[in-house]
Structures are given as C-alpha cells and as structure tokens.
Design a protein that fits this description.
By secondary structure, the protein is an alpha/beta fold. The chain is built from 14 helices and 10 strands. The strands form 2 sheets. It has a 5-stranded mixed sheet with strand order 1-3-2-4-5. The chain has a 5-stranded mixed sheet with strand order 6-8-7-9-10. The longest helix has 39 residues.
Length: 377
Amino acid sequence: MRLLLSLLFAGLLAGVSASNVVELTPDNFDSEIGTGKPGLVEFFAPWCGHCKNLAPIYEQLGDAFAHAKSKVIVAKVDADGVGKPLGQKYGVTGYPTLKWFDGQGNIEPYEGGRDLDALVSFITAKSGVKSNIKPPPPPETLILDVHNFDDIALDETKDVLVTFTAPWCGHCKNLKPIYEQVASDFKPESNCIVANIDADAQPNKEIAGRYGVSSYPTIKFFPRGGKEAEAYEGPRTEQAFVAFLNERCGTQRAVGGGLNDEAGRIAELDTLVQKFLGAAGDARDYVYKEALTLSESLGETAKYYIRVMEKVVNDQESYIEKESKRLASILSKRTMSPAKLDEIKIKANILGAFVAKKLEEAQEKVESVIGKATAEL
C-alpha cells in the first residue's frame, strides 16, 4: 500500500510539473524540427536575466498550443549548456534568441514582442493554428509600430502621448492598467491620442533610438503642429495624466471618464447669468436679450444658457432644480453612449451656473438674518 501511494504521489507530482515546452538537444533536434511540423524555438542560457523573465511566459505559450502538438511545436534549447552546438550552428550570439522553423526547417528570426499575446499571435499567423487562450479585449490604448508610428505620432493635426515600453519591464506592467484607463478617458477625443509602442521589439528599435529611448517606460508627448516631441516627467497617475492632457490638448476630460465640471461653461454667459438672476422685470429682460445676442457667436452650447433663461422668464424657476436632479440621475446610471453622456454633462454644468447663483442668494439671506439678530442683542 505504501509503495502504491508513493507511486501515485510521484505520478501526480510529475503531472503538475510537466511542461508543454519541448526541450531540444543535439540528440533530438533533427527528429523534432524540419520534419513537416513548424515550431518556435527559444535559445536560452540559464543565467540570463531576460531568459528568466521570459520563462513563465514561454511556459504559458507551450500550454496555449498543447492541444495542437501534432501541428506546431513550442521548444527551447539550452544554448549555453548541452545545446551549445545548436546555438553555434544557428548563429546565436545573445539570449534569449527566438527562431521560427517552418516544416522544412527554413529559419526566420522572431523579432516581435515577448509578451504572451504577441507570441501567440505570431504562431497563429505562421502556422494557422489557434491557441486555446481566450483572446483579450482590444486595448483602449492605440498600439503603434514601425508601420504606423509616423502617420499617427507625427500627425500635425493631433496631440499624441506615447509610452515606449518593453514587455518584460516591471514598471511598464505596473503602468499599463493606469494608462489603459487614461486611454479610455480620452477615447472620445479624436485629436488627443493616448498610444503605446513596444520599443523593445526589433522592428521598432529604430524609432526608439530616434527619440533617445534608453529605459522603460519612457513617455513622450508629440504636440500638434509638427513641434518637437517633449518628455513627460510628471507623476504616473491617472489624475496627473488627465490634467496634463487637458492642459496640452485643450480638452476637459474627467478622471474615470466623461467630462469634468468645467466642460461647456462659457465665462461671458456665466457672468450674464449672475446679472440675470439678480435682476427683475425690464432689467432681467434686458440681460436676457444681451445674452441672446452674445450666444449667436458662441456655438451650440450657448443656446442651452438661453433655453434655461427662457424657462426662468416664464416663471418656471423650479425647472432649474428639477432638471438638475434629472440630469444627475442620468449621469449616475451611465447607460447612454459616451457622446450622449457628454451632452448631458454639459447641460448639467450649465445648469450649475444658475444653481450657484441660487445658493449664493440663499447664503446672503442667511448671513443677513444672522447679522440682524446679532445687532439686536
């Protein structure tokens, strides 16, 4: 019984530690590679730091194609140990080196990213075999590479923030979820782009060198108008990125998405709102006409100021409170499209100009009552 349990435990342990990455040596290389089945081969060295960073990802890659071992192989060679003759044969001079071998043994260097998504995509494209990994949702960040970088980052009509990253970089991994949220915050802005480039991928290294990228992540802002790229050296928080882009792009985005409380507000009309609510009779009508004339040159947003004034003129001052509550409810549910929510937020912000005046008047009344009571004591 004890022997049976020992064998069972050993079998379970072997099952847990089994790898779907094939280990190649000079003895089995030719029987696995170039015999009709294509494959990706990593030439590594046990002491290599980059190899150690890649190791868990490469194991996941083997698992991703474990169901298709008869069609494609994921393998590795200890090119500084038993597989050193293979490393020399295939011109390996640095670690890790990845090479694609087609079914006939023809070689193509792998120069893409070293993240799981990039590796899976490469094998799928080369072999036609799909992995068993559920594809991730598309990133909010616009992904740049050697083919589209100049068209987007150097577009003179756009402001573009670019992170230069490497898949193995810990700081880049920490930044990614924050940067994705920033990209989501600015997605409605067609001329304020949040982008990323894998600067460690071989095809993209010329671009990284062009902009002096020597560490990761490096963040640069490419302003519209063809101006020179600038280093972003602020905090790497969503709040800091949003504030920076709002200032440089002339946008009014809020942390977490949507517009901020200043969006849609027009200073000249805000001033007239104060006069309008503080006036009565002919004086109020005069301010209304002044605002109407001014609004004709200030675009669509200005028309909503006029609409609210008309409600007040027609003795519907309760409209401000009721409409503010209605719009606040819509914004809290966030069930509409981003464009519609932006429109609602602008209306709510404009109503805020009227509400602020009401609160100011109420505060003045309270202070007046307190002042009189104090004087009578």
